[in-house]
TrEMBL record, chain B:
Species classification: Bacteria, Bacillati, Actinomycetota, Actinomycetes, Kitasatosporales
Record-level Gene Ontology MF annotations: catalytic activity; iron-sulfur cluster binding
Domain Radical SAM core: 260-502
Organism of derivation: Streptomyces tardus
InterPro entries per UniProt: CHP03960_rSAM (IPR023862), Elp3/MiaA/NifB-like_rSAM (IPR006638), Radical_SAM_N2 (IPR045784), rSAM (IPR007197), rSAM_horseshoe (IPR023404), rSAM_sf (IPR058240)
Protein name according to UniProt: TIGR03960 family B12-binding radical SAM protein
Amino acid sequence: MVQRVRLRYTKRGRLRFTSHRDFQRAFERALRRAAVPMAYSAGFSPHPKVSYANAAPTGTASEAEYLEIGLARHCDPHRLRELLDLSMPTGLDIVDAVEADTSGFADRLLASCWELRLDGVGTEEAEEAVRRFLAADSVEVQRQTKKGVRTFDARAAVASLECVDAGHELGSDGPAQQPCAILRLVVRHLTPAVRPDDVLSGLRATADLAPPVPVSVTRLAQGPLDEETGTVTDPLAPDRDATLVATVPGSTA
Amino acid sequence: MPIESVFPRLEALLPHVQKPIQYVGGELNSTVKDWDECQVRWSLMYPDAYEVGLPNQGVMILYEVLNEREGVLAERTYSVWPDLEKLMREHEVPQFTVDAHRPVGAFDFFGLSFSTELGYTNMLTALDLAGIPLESADRGIDHPVVVAGGHAAFNPEPIADFIDCAVIGDGEQAVLEMTEIARVWKAEGRPGGRDELLLRLAKTGGVYVPRFYDVEYLADGRIARVVPNRSGVPWRVSKHTVMDLDEWPYPKQPLVPLAETVHERMSVEIFRGCTRGCRFCQAGMITRPVRERSITGIGEMVDKGLESTGFEEVGLLSLSSADHSEIADVAKGLADRYTEDKIGLSLPSTRVDAFNIDLANELTRNGRRSGLTFAPEGGSERIRKVINKMVSEEDLIRTVATAYGNGWRQVKLYFMCGLPTETDEDVLQIADMATRVIAKGREVSGANDIRCTVSIGGFVPKPHTPFQWAPQLSSAETDARLEKLRDRIRGDKKYGRSIGFRYHDGKPGIVEGLLSRGDRRIGDVIRAVYEAGGRFDGWREYFSYDLWMESAAKTLPAHGVDVDWYTTRERSYEEALPWDHLDSGLDKDWLWEDWQDALDETEVEDCRWTPCFDCGVCPQMDTEIQIGPTGRKLLPLTVTTPSADGNAPA
């Protein structure tokens, strides 16, 4: 392996129903179609070197999923991004690529920013629910796991939760008069992981908020959490900075 | 008139169902054409779950053949699982295609491919969800024409009430011919309604329209005769045969799903048909003659297919892949070409006597060396003569010895139970064969971790085979025989622990037998099962033997017949069989002679290498065997695909 490249990709529209396993298979096939010179693991049954970080649950959309690939020959990250994006189905789009010049990438994914569209829920009702949720010290929720029902706190991991103005939303193709509250949620990646649907369970528990149709959930960003501004920042920034310094003399790209 | 997508309504249901990705479409290489620019529109269904249906070669081929034509569109639909079915009924979402999520009821044709009879109840579910009346007689001019194809369509009588027509044999040319007839009829303003369209299809001689035939019965329940009730409709409907496979290199761009499916590989059909003459094998009988794809044709399809899919395994499909006249060159050529890319090769059906170690080594060169699978089918030399599976135990032992000597550790053997004339002793000899395999393996490998798995299921007699007259073994007798075999294997102190034993109980086989050799009176049973909630009969967790038996007990007595009458009863030479008016090309008298030869334990050679034995297909269908060798070789390719580093791979 001579180079590692980190990629940001999306799960948009109907392809948000892609499970992580489905994505992995699709991505590895796209690598073959695009003839990416992959590095392979050693051993009896060699696999291309791909590591995935913190995938969004099946059914939730995302603008900010990350993975890293190991290459056997040097490639220009931008050209690589273009080729892979062409090779992937529309909706699973490869939107960013940088050469990995730093370690500890997974440790930088400390928080996520989510958008939750609650069709059929009025803004006032949503605001009241958010107020009650945030006012609580802890909000016990339950989730069905493979090992049975698990109870945990959904409040502590929430860094911020607010109602945003629906008017700003793009892609809301429904009739304008239909009530639709939009929540912006920043949640820290703790153990046990708190997902958007856990926060929705929390809203139901604290304020009886029960959206009439499935809530559509999109991850807008994941990365380091800026505690001062409360925003989730770009986890690839350190690689970009390192690349800028490194590529000045005699780069291969 | 534009047809609205049902996706927005479906989307709201998807968060509540298992594996929603299977319903959203968007597969790589799938096609969505403009509705209004097409005059003839097909929805194609494989009546099983998406994970099974998507890789089906038949559907993929027709999908591409139709979509390549201007003014024609084809979309795919699969069976929805009961969780989604329930929600679709609650929210009035109709059966939809996964391509553009258009309602199936809006298409001109609704084509279903039946690899097995166990998809019949799923057809009824789909029809009902689509808002199409279950019975052909109740449909109007705006309903799609429901077409059955696939191997099970060689006896479409059990579903005669539900389909509008059936096509037997290869579909490539047939669907185009039907499309043309529909196009003209629509352009003329649909004269004579639905009946006229069906009549025009029937008059081609290659489309069976059940409503144009009357079935008359004898007092004892047997069929007296089947007679056309319209002029211009043929007495017998012919099967379709594509003669030059190189002219039909489909699928050119196989579909690559996002969801996980049962076969994840680039499949290339290397030949069609088989003349080995195994008497139990319906596929081998109804797909004659043998037509090979040339070595260069195979090479081109593999090359283009891998490029457009990114699959990492190539499957060389056919009924007996090692029988291709140039299989060694094909395997070596492909293994050479794709060494760098770590592409594995698989040969799904390999005969013991066609196996050789050089071929096996080529197949595993770029990939894993998993188990080897062979199908001796019968445990004793005698029963193998009855079924015409000419594989001697010596052949098998020699083959496995080579395999174990070359590093393989696991051999899987497939058998059938309940073959005609079979006794307990024939089946118990399977245990002896397995112990010889283990003993030989330990001897040549010097290791003790040798394994052999015996997999065995009940035999179901099928139409258009020499065993179409044979009595099927009852499920109780099948189970008893299998238990004896299991006890014999488990009781073996020295070898028993090295032998795996997998078997299927006899009950599903009885239902399959009822449907396989059934006639129009079986339609009531299928409908009753469907109405009582029967679905996904090919799935152990859904199949209910009791439901089938209860439904049969309710509906069949009115006709003076029962399940045993259809399954365990031996037929006589004179009896008119329900599928006699569907012409597979096989001469009924030849089939009968072959049945008599089976009872006499007389074998028949393969006509690829010995003179013709007059099965009837070639003269009847105006076809002939097409095999190599061509003498050509697969050349190394210069790959020019753009790669990420800007250079062609070395």
